[in-house]
Amino acid sequence: MLTAALKRLTQHSFVYALGPAVHKVIGFLILPLVTVWIGSRGNYGVVEMASVTLAIAAQVLGINLLQGMARYYASYDTEADRRALVGTCVLILLGTTGVAFLFAWCFRAAGAELLFGSREYADALVLAAGILVAQSVSQVGLRWLQLLERSTLYGVVTTLKLLLETGLKVWFLAGLGLTYMGVLYSVLCGELVVALGVGVVLVARTKLAFSRAMAKRLWTYSSPLLFSGLCGFVLHQGDRFFVLQAGGEDQVGLYGLAYKLGSIGNTVVFEAFALIWYPFVFAVKDDESVRRIIRAVLVYFTLLLAFVTLGLALFSPEIVRVMADERFFEAHTVLPLVAGGYLAWGVYQVVGTVFYLRERTWLVSALVAGAAALNFALNAFLVPRHGYVGAAWATLATFACLAGAAWIVAERTWRIGHETLRVLAPIVLAAGLFVGARAGAEAAPAHGLAIRTLGVLLLPGILAVGGYLNRQEKDKLWEFARRGVSTVFRRR
Questions:
Q1: Of 34, 61, 295, 71, nearest in space to 171 by CA
Q2: Within this chain, do residues 156 and 137 fall inside the same structural domain, yes or no?
Q3: In the Cβ-directed half-sphere of 66, how many Cα atoms lie within 13 Å?
Q4: Using an 8 Å Cβ cutoff, are 401 and 371 in contact?
Q5: N or C: the chain end with fewer CB closer than 10 Å?
Q6: pLDDT tens per residue across span 425-469
Q7: Residue 245's CB: how many other CB atoms inside 10 A?
Q8: Residue 316 forms part of a structural domain
Q9: What is the DSSP string of 331-378?
Q10: Which residue range(s) make up the domain with 269?
Q11: Predicted structure pTM score
Q12: 3-state class of 188 per DSSP?
């Protein structure tokens, strides 16, 4: 049962990862060109702050209505009611984001000074507000495609949107020299094209019908999510405001790049896994089977993420050199801290599965709120003294505390019996290898690359010979390796 479950999780995670992986690869491939063409680290910081502004505005203005739409869509029996639900959601979001756009237009200078630290970015604020309006339509349309199980069409639309944005970004940056405005124009154009396309369908199919009862139902369900959404924003993006105040757009640009690259492990490993993990584990009815699966998943997931994190940390200078212009090279100093923080975030996500299984979601809100308060306090103390380096330390400390607190509370909520030593062993070993390999590379620069490579390879090697794997696991690994080798030779 356990082996079959893990195999199924792995297979589905790979399938689900294909689409998002292509999108991420394109995004990372264009990143070095963006950092060259954008003009300065400060300009990249403006783009980062625009993204932060969009994230918090979307939460405040009701993006969580989409969760309510997904929750209630199947509960309506008639197609007319379902279309009315979608139409109601569109109209509410258009109303809230439309009002926000008018405010941004009328008070663009004051708003830019508040959010970006200078009135010269007034046009950037208006563009961000326009993006928000377009997103409100496109996101409803894309969620509707998911509810209709039109996964192929969903993939085609999102991929075409990405390709359009990428092409426009190259043209606006390299061809027209529009720097940060070019990035924002490309995003706005991509969102507008999707919004117009799905908007025509939405109008034709739903007639933009509005229901007061449905609106009330959507707000009742979605409003509590605003609090947890804002707390999540503080955890992942709120530190940019502290960095902006302490060091300006220049430091925000450095930190934003380090954050993007440091969270690659979470993006590649966890986000794809999460698409199948929650639906899969919710479908398992036997409690003891659920416990065994969660125990095993946490062990293997932590091992994989520790390996990826160690690689990101030790090769952070090379990663930044490849992925960004030389002006951003300084960002490599904090990349290991961000990567370590997202290792802890991954642990939190897996152990927190218990809260959803036992329907104790209020505990998630309480834990995230506590972590947000801690993160706010740490940033307020560290960033004025250490700049964006302090923000990176705050991220690492906050996510580590969140993972530890969630582990304790989850075990008291429903005891899983996690293998504590097996979970912590790769994390502690990765930290030790990072310190040792980095010190060795600094002492012998000529052999630095070899020393860091050895440091990464030692992680699975030491665990393999140190009794980390039991006999059954070793047999499975050997069987997997033999099948892989035989498959390669058969193809030849």
A1: 34
A2: yes
A3: 20
A4: yes
A5: C
A6: 999 999 999 999 999 988 888 888 999 999 999 999 999 888 887
A7: 13
A8: yes
A9: GGGTHHHHHHHHHHHHHHHHHTHHHHHTT-HHHHHHHHHHHHHHHHHH
A10: 1-35+238-484
A11: 0.78
A12: helix
